[in-house]
Automatic annotation (TrEMBL):
The keyword Metal-binding applies. This is Phosphoesterase. CDD domains: MPP_YfcE. The lineage of its organism: Bacteria, Bacillati, Bacillota, Erysipelotrichia, Erysipelotrichales. Its cofactor is a divalent metal cation. Residues 1-162 form the Calcineurin-like phosphoesterase domain. Belongs to the metallophosphoesterase superfamily. YfcE family. It is an enzyme of class 3 (hydrolase). SUPFAM superfamilies: Metallo-dependent phosphatases (SSF56300). Gene3D superfamilies: 3.60.21.10. Pfam families: Metallophos_2. Keywords: Metal-binding. PANTHER family: VACUOLAR SORTING PROTEIN VPS29.
Length: 180
């Protein structure tokens, strides 16, 4: 099983199209959206290509391929437009004998990550910065933000499979990777 992992789209149709280019290129089995899908939020600048209705039109045809979690900028009104569930705070997945807790990252502290045990993977978004690190036997992974990266990081998405986690730039170059 291979996942395309995308976080913090924030209503940008331009960067949603970039994510879908990655989907066509890498041919994952599923898309994992780590929240903040349609709204840019009051603390963020208006992203390039901001058009939440177009984001809906781009993502809804892939609803059967999408697993999503709720971000701090996602709301019930957004769910009314989307054909896939975005209102759960976290999702538990199993991949290659590993338990993965996927969440946006705004509700739970990272030290220690909740719902995680040594050997598990804690996958989160929210901070808009790519992360690959291990703490207390738990692997912490963040794909960064495809739309609004912070701290001089590039626009990124990630690929996750039983062999590892690879953070890619929107030009499809490897930025960081971890082999399991």
């Amino acid at each position: 099983m291979k996942f395309l992992v995308v976080s913090d789209i924030h209503g940008s149709a331009d960067y949603t199209k970039k994510a879908l280019e990655a989907y066509a290129l890498h041919k994952p089995d599923q898309i994992l959206l780590l929240g903040d899908i349609l709204y840019h939020g009051p603390r963020n600048p208006l992203p390039q290509g901001y058009n939440p209705q177009e984001v809906v039109a781009l993502l809804n045809p892939l609803a059967d391929k999408i697993i999503a979690v709720r971000g701090n900028c996602d709301a019930e009104v957004d769910q009314m437009l989307l054909n896939f569930d975005i209102l759960r705070d976290c999702a538990t997945l199993f991949l290659g004998g590993r338990r993965i807790t996927a969440t946006h990252g705004h509700l739970f502290p990272l030290d220690p990550p909740p719902h995680s045990f040594p050997g598990d993977i804690y996958l989160f978004g929210h901070i808009h910065i790519p992360v690959i690190r291990q703490e207390n036997g738990i692997t912490l992974l963040n794909p960064g933000s495809i739309t609004l990266p912070k701290e001089n990081s590039p626009h990124t998405y990630a690929l996750l499979d039983e062999h590892g986690f690879t953070i890619m730039t929107i030009d499809h170059d490897v930025y960081q990777s971890l082999t399991f």
